[in-house]
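Write out the 3D structure for:
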Amino acid sequence: MITKTRKTKETDITISLNLQGEGKSNIKSGVGFLDHMLESFSKHSLIDLDIVCNGDTHIDDHHSVEDIGIVLGALIAEAIYPVKNMERFGSANIVMDEACVNCDLDLSNRPFLVYEVDLQGKVGNFDTELVEEFFRAFVLNAKLTVHIVQLRGKNQHHIIEAAFKAVAVAIRRAIAKNERVGIPSTKDML
């Protein structure tokens, strides 16, 4: 397990991560819906996660959601770079009832996010616009190239959960061990 802490006037976050884990999690973000999404992310990526966040949720959930993305992304970067003996690329289409979301990603060490997901309003008390904020913070700090594309869906909860699961499965496939690939780049580094 590797651990990272980030403390600002808005949030106090500690995250521990085991990249080649079993999908076990203990998550207390202060944002119930995000806990559910991150538990699902952990389960389907097989990355063990312990997350504790004390944030200014009396204002709203924005700072907690974004800052968790920052810290989690930074830990992923620390765990995977330099990339060696990993598949590098991952892809997944995940369905949840009527919803289907695709994620293609590259452990590129060059952050870029394509986010084509149509969300509006809230799921419970959770502002759906925060999903993009989370993924942007996560991708930039993990230094991944990630494309998240909603193929279909109407139910906001299903769409968001399919997105988190799609990213999780794509990461699981990208970090899969493969000794034959060595450094998976013609540049001889990532």
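The first helix runs from residue 32 to 45.
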